[in-house]
Specification:
This protein is mostly helical. Among the domains are: 109 residues, no CATH class; 138 residues, no CATH class. The chain is built from 9 helices and 2 strands. A two-stranded antiparallel ribbon has the order 1-2. α4 packs antiparallel against α5, α5 packs across α6 and α8 packs antiparallel against α9. The chain is globular, with a radius of gyration of 49 Å.
Length: 426
């Protein structure tokens, strides 16, 4: 079945007679000389085949504002908001910028939405709660006016927790004094335990440098060294050191040649630094008749040196003694250490051993200098290893080696001077 020709039966192409075509809308006459900003419907309007009825070629006015074609003639050149006469402008309001519309309406921007479209209000921003980052450590929670930051109580200029340091110091003093007074042989057990803990801390610290000294032969040899010094004297002390180093070397052979020299060097340092130097404390305490007094005089001189140096350094410290090793030590603190140890030892040795006060002062000065050197030596080791304390075993003090550092250098000095000032009676 053939469809009817929509153009009728007249000829097509160039041979068709020209005549106006009936339009679906009424014609409007365009008066001569009457022009507006919007083209008016008429014969001239439709002469251009690209022109569509009521299609405005420019949907924006001179200010770039979106307008509706029917309302273009109602706009003047001024912004209605700048009009001096209220109520003069009653047309649609221009848009100052992109406005978000409802996504369901399909109008992504204000320029593409019709004038009458309903504007959906912008949704209120949703503030996501901050995820918990875990429990804050003490003193690191967020502070405010109503909730100030937590302060670390009892911390002085020297960086110590003084109440904890004093309590631990008194406990260590009682652990030493009570065995010496009640049963001197029990002091050997305390000394052996301190040596074992100190060697464990040292071996644990040197692992940061890549060295792995064998711990079992070190601790066994260190305890043996202290015991030999107590029962057999100075010669046995040297023998104990030799046995410790040889036993460590043989034990280390089982792990192969990789890093052997490094591990053996670290083991030798630990054996000399802890059990060999601590063996002189055993020699002092094992002296007949006045052994406990010798060790007490030495320990009291060390305590006086530390206390005087701390007090003078906190109060008057201005000139660093060794800033690259221990920044908190000052020459004023060193002077306080020497003065306190000299005065205390002069009185102490005169009361204990009837030694002239000036010899007691010499003893105090020598012990104080040795204690300061021992403290600096351990600070050098810790700085080289990159650690602040050997461990956190003792609150307010760090590790046990942080308390033994001064004593380990002081006891050989005290042993030598007391052997001269107060000869040992066999």
């Amino acid at each position: 079945m053939s469809h009817p020709d929509p153009y009728g039966s007249e000829p097509r192409g160039w041979d068709r007679a020209e005549r106006p075509v009936a339009l679906p809308w009424p014609e409007q006459d365009l008066e001569a000389g009457q022009w507006s900003s919007r083209p008016t419907a008429g014969p001239e309007l439709y002469a251009d085949p690209h022109t569509r009825p009521y299609a405005d070629p420019n949907p924006y006015d001179e200010r770039g504002r979106a307008v509706r074609p029917d309302d273009r003639d109602r706009f003047d050149d001024r912004d209605p908001r700048e009009d001096d006469e209220p109520g003069r402008y009653d047309g649609p309001q221009p848009f100052d910028g992109p406005v978000r519309y409802d996504d369901d309406a399909g109008y992504p921007t204000a320029q593409l939405a019709p004038i009458g479209a309903e504007i959906a209000p912008d949704p209120e921003p949703v503030i996501e709660p901050e995820p918990p980052s875990g429990r804050r450590t003490k003193g690191r929670r967020r502070a405010s006016v109503d909730r100030p930051a937590t302060q670390q109580l009892g911390t002085g200029r020297a960086g110590r927790n003084l109440p904890a340091a004093i309590g631990v110091g008194l406990g260590l003093g009682a652990l030493i004094v009570v065995p010496l007074v009640v049963y001197p042989l029990a002091f050997l057990l305390v000394l052996a335990g301190a040596v074992a803990v100190g060697m464990w801390e040292m071996a644990r610290a040197v692992r940061r440098s890549g060295a792995h000294p064998p711990l079992v032969p070190l601790i066994a040899g260190g305890v043996l060294t202290v015991g030999l010094a107590w029962f057999a004297g100075p010669d046995a002390l040297s023998l104990g050191l030799l046995v410790t180093v040889l036993g460590t070397m043989i034990w280390r052979l089982g792990d192969g040649p990789a890093g052997f020299q490094r591990d053996l060097t670290a083991a030798t340092l630990i054996a000399v630094y802890v059990p060999f130097l601590a063996g002189f404390a055993a020699l002092l305490a094992a002296a007949p008749d006045d052994g406990p007094l010798r060790i007490l005089a030495t320990l009291i001189a060390v305590v006086l040196s530390d206390t005087g140096g701390y007090a003078a350094g906190v109060s008057f410290g201005r000139h660093p003694m060794a800033p690259s090793i221990s920044p908190k030590k000052s020459w004023e603190g060193f002077a306080g250490s020497v003065t306190a140890a000299a005065l205390g030892s002069a009185l102490l040795l005169w009361l204990m051993f009837e030694v002239a006060p000036w010899w007691g002062a010499v003893f105090g000065v020598a012990v104080s200098c040795a204690a300061v050197l021992g403290d600096l030596a351990e600070s050098m080791i810790k700085r080289d290893l990159g650690v602040k304390d050997m461990s956190n075993l003792l609150p307010g003090h760090g590790g046990l080696m942080d308390r033994l550092d001064s004593i380990l250098f002081a006891v050989p000095t005290a042993y030598l001077l007391l052997a001269v000032f107060v000869p040992v009676v066999n």
